[in-house]
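To close the section, here is one more complete example, presented without commentary so you can practise reading it yourself. The ligand is zinc ion.
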Amino acid sequence: MTASKGYGTPNAQSPLAPVSFSRREPGPTEIAMETLYCGVCHSDLHMVRNEWGNAIYPMVPGHEIVGRVTVAGSAVKKFKAGQIAAIGVIVDSCRHCAPCTHGEEQYCEEGVTLTYASPDRVDGSLTMGGYSNNYVVDERFAHTVPGNLDLAGVAPLLCAGITTYSPLRHWNVGPGKKVGVVGLGGLGHMALKFAHSFGAHVVQFTTSPKKKDDAMRLGANEVVLSTDAKAMKTHARSFDFILDAVSAPHSLDPYTEMLKLDATMALVGLPEKFPVVNIGNLVSRRAALTGSSIGGMPETQEMLDYCGQHNITADVEVIPMQKINEAFERLLRQDVKYRFAIDMSTLK
Ligand code: NAP
Ligand code: ZN
Ligand code: ZN
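Output:
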């Protein structure tokens, strides 16, 4: 066992504070890594405060991890000690069900092992996340990182990046498509970057007037304040695809009204309370309201390689580990441009 340290909490009420715990040694197909950066996802906040009702404590959150390999097991093929590696939201799955064999581990029929707050399939212990100094994972669930990218900006790609890349690819977002992104947060700003990069006409919806200029800089063709009912009406029945990346309860109806015949609205945001939807909007357009969960291991690697080729990273504000509770509060105030990344060297 390796003595490890991080920031964690024993329950839903306490702020995050320094904790010590042990990690098992890596097996033959596993790597151990020293963490360098970890992104701060709104899911970390939902989980820490048990807003989805499935939290297990003690909890060390963090699932947007970039680090340096310290040990590569004897059968590891992808990594050598000293190499940069990245880990996202999933660290194991059954590996034999239909989704797993098709590289869509996020939809594993037996349930995934999450990077934190999940029973480890190897030894039954509780997984501890990336707000810590190290991680141990099977190489199947770790990714190589293009050498040209800034590592702090890479960390958020492991959740915010793949969670938006995957649905945009699945629903064929590209040239000739009018695409909406709802919410300009960590996920939203990656959705905007990807949809723009894929060649779509992108409309960013935001509740924050001060984010308008940034949205244009990040690749939006148009920005709409969702509180402006008149501006919203001008987009009625015009979208091919809308991706909703909002962290708080809100009505979906103004967006389903904007879908064209046979268009799709996909939800990736997972607020604490789910909205009631106007089914009439869907029936009157043969529209689909659907959802999407992160992405599988092959697609996560594809996304990272795409980011390397197109020089795409998250816009990050790098913070020391000690500022995490403040960062959570700022996340709730929609005050982040556009992802916090923790510099893990500050944990030492
Ligand atoms: P975030 O950085 O906090 O961004 C959320 C954005 O939602 C905010 O920036 C804000 O955008 C908008 N928003 C916040 N409160 C709002 C309200 N009351 N009404 C309307 N809009 C509001 O969060 P994130 O890390 O991107 O995560 C977004 C959501 O996705 C979370 O629920 C998270 O748990 C979920 N998630 C899901 C998956 C998945 O696999 N499906 C993966 C990762 C995360 P504006 O200021 O532009 O309005
Ligand atoms: Zn996440
Ligand atoms: Zn499976």
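Once you have examined the tokens, check your reading against these statements. Residues 317 and 333 are 15 Å apart (CA to CA). The longest helix spans residues 297-310.
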